[in-house]
Amino acid sequence: MAYNEDGYQITRHICPRNCYDTCGMLAYVRKGRLEKITGDPAHGYTKGKLCSKGQNYIQRVYSSDRIRFPLRQMGRGSGRWERITWEQAMEIICERILNLKDRYHSTLPFCLNKYSGNFGVLHSAVEGMFNSLGPTTQARGSPCWSAGLDAQLYDMGYNRNSDPGEMEKADIIILWGVNPAWTAIHSLPYIYRAQEKGATVIVIDPVYTQTARKADYFVQTKPGEDGALALALAKIIYESGNGDQNFIDHHTLGWPLFKDYLANLNLDYLAAQCGQELGRIQELAAIIGSTRAVFIWAGFGLQRHIHGGQTLRAIDALGAITGCIGMPGGGVHYAHQLTWGFNYNFLKDPGNRYLNINTFAHELNHLQEQSVKMLWVSCRNLLAQDTAGKMLRKELDKLELIVTVEQFLTETACYSDIVLPATTQFEEMDVVPSYWHHWIGLNEQAILPYFEAKSDLEIGQLLAKTLNTYRPGSSSFPIEKSPGSFLDEEFNEKLYALLGISHWSELAAGPRQAAVSTTAWSSKTFATPSGKFEFFSAKAQRENIPPLAQYHKGMSPQGKYPYWLITSHAQQGLNSQFQNITKLAKNKKPVVFIHPQTAAVKGVKTGQMVRVYNKLGVITLQAHVSPDTPSDILVCHQGWLPGSETRLNDLNDGLPTDMGRVSTGSQGVAFYDVFVDFDPV
Amino acid sequence: MPNHTFDRITDLAKRYSLYSLFKQYYQGEWELARKAAATIQQYIPVNDNLSFQQDHQLDKAALFDYNRLFVGPGKLLASPYESAYRNAQGLVMQEETLFVRQFYLQAGIEVSNKNAFPDDHLGLEFEFICYLLAREGERLQADDSSTANHYAALYQEFCQQHILSWVYQHCDDILTHGRTSLCRDTAIALVRFLQTEEANFLSKEEFV
Ligand code: SF4
Questions:
Q1: pLDDT tens digit sequence for A353-393
Q2: A575: distance to nearest CA of chain B, Å?
Q3: Which residues have a Cβ under 8 Å from the Cβ of A66 and sit 6 or more positions away?
Q4: What is this model's ipTM?
Q5: What region holds the 4Fe-4S Mo/W bis-MGD-type domain (chain A) (predicted)?
Q6: pTM of the prediction?
Q7: Is ligand 1 within 6 A of the CB of residue A136?
Q8: Does B74 contact A642 at a Cβ distance shorter than 8 Å?
């Protein structure tokens, strides 16, 4: 429960963003007003600290740009908004739902597109409300991490990682395609302490990131070619006798085949592919091969390529050969699902039709039966984030009703018929797990909802209630249940045992760390069919994926489009969130980082506007000349700036990654296989 | 009742009814706001060729304009919240809001739903003023001029400390961003009205 101190009512919260850190927070409320937000010292991973985004949450909660009331737009994108009451909003939506049902004798015309805007467990109420209507159409999959998740499923059978604190025990930390100095700052203290104790930190990244600046070794690879580097390292380490034969013999499957595969690889070729001198790779292999406690943190960026899954399998294989997997301070870490064992009652599937979230517009366009007529959007800004934006708009134009639940007037909200104001995590109750550390915590309600905002759960209940008033039996969504009762049903004995509590309300005393092994795979018994680390995965083969981790040459810039366009995370933003908060918006205009030589060739200087283009379109960005970016790469940090017409993904073809179906229902997007040219404006 | 008291009550009634119209306009039940704006513009003609449009299309245009300026869902082009002008970061529900809350409390008034809807919304500030003017009138009618003067002083203080410190800027924003005569002319009417009030305060002070 909330407690009082110095005249403040203090409540516990968890930042529900799609972020490695999933921080514990304390909200200080006086006279009903949220006055300050700090980190929660009871959270063992985030330890009372917050990133700048977290520190500025008050700016977000009390932003005068937040959506206050339900509104209806007379003409999508027209800006002609009419304020309506919640009752009117529900009436409009329910009348449309029932009308569609009567016309089509089906619930498939209703479509939901929701993703990671809020990872709170109760936000699945949106799916719950949809599922209560009957079989509907729902976007499924993940634009973010699918290929890597599947890769680790094939190799190890489950997505599991060590406690990030294990990094302190490492002899070598490899930060591979991950930039924790920007995207997981709470992991930095472990890395620094490991370094103080003598660990070597190696950063592998195409871009000279803030993290790379702190490394002992920085290896600047070509985008999408990390698999070549991983396999070259694996081959050298094994062939020089530095592999862990004991691990290989007792805990792996398919080694003879993989060994033959390695034997046939040409090191010069692999080195050229990943843009390294062979000598440099040999030097690295000697460092990595000299010890066992190698902690590899594989980021999401490296799997955002057409062979992203294979890249992660190659890195896993490198881990297996060194024998670091299952060792304290060792292993290959990507993301875990250890603390996500909720009951997910909301997700019980009544026979839905699923569309790939990554090719949503295309799928809408190609529906064989029963087209979609109404779209509900929550926790997403698809118009800013999806590829194929033009096609998406065309598809949206065909719909009879678009409803968006939002905190701000995003591009997607701008293109909706109805917007409904959403609460923040300070105005609702929830429980939020993490995919990086092993802590789970509670969100208590600290303040009243801003104006007329409601949570996804309340909105679901209101809609169900209205629908049933119009036509009894239309929705089976529980309309009277409190958020706490929903949480009662989401937890189970196993989860309680993991957290060492008997009821979720005990989380009000502080977040809990799940009692999972701090070292992933310490038993060396894997969750694969064979119980071993599988160099050869029959499961992959059944999915028409090569059973062995293999190198596949990635895409590279050529001809008319000689530059990569890499759209990585911003420091002050999370996907499309946060950059609209004035205090966080570093740049008023979207910026592209260009290497000095490349800029010189084009006669471009910092501050100048440039047109970046390919066959799909043109976007205009402000140039920032920086030696951190290689000469053949343009870097733009993704984000949504209100009023900006620039959509980075307008230049993105949305090519699928090789893996992702098993864990998320569809392949990921090769967000970083995008090629462009540019000119000064 | 002495003549000057009678005059003061008549004057109060007129000012009360204007504030009450502005309150309705800002409290924004649209039909009410539209009617209020029309009446305000009859009271305070804002220009010679003012043509208040009854035509439905324009009416809708005024509604959309009103929402762009004061309601959302996007960035408010002329925010009706005091804190949006007086808080350095333009946030709502800030210290500035609490100062207004304190002022209301001092007069024994509290906003229902106060932590969800900021106390410093212009519609609420005008409602508070209506309350003060009504009390002043009541007390005058009851021949209790000392309490009446107390309410008058509170009104002047509130106006000077709050309304006059931001509403002109707010009206400027309406004139910069407003697209329809209904919203723009109401802003001009409000400026004129407040200027008269301000001049009265000054003349009273000089008189003292
Ligand atoms: S954005 Fe990430 S690091 Fe920042 S407060 Fe939220 S969870 Fe923590």
A1: 999 999 999 999 999 999 999 999 999 999 988 888 889 99
A2: 20
A3: A60, A407, A408, A421, A450, A451, A453, B72
A4: 0.89
A5: 8-65
A6: 0.94
A7: no
A8: yes
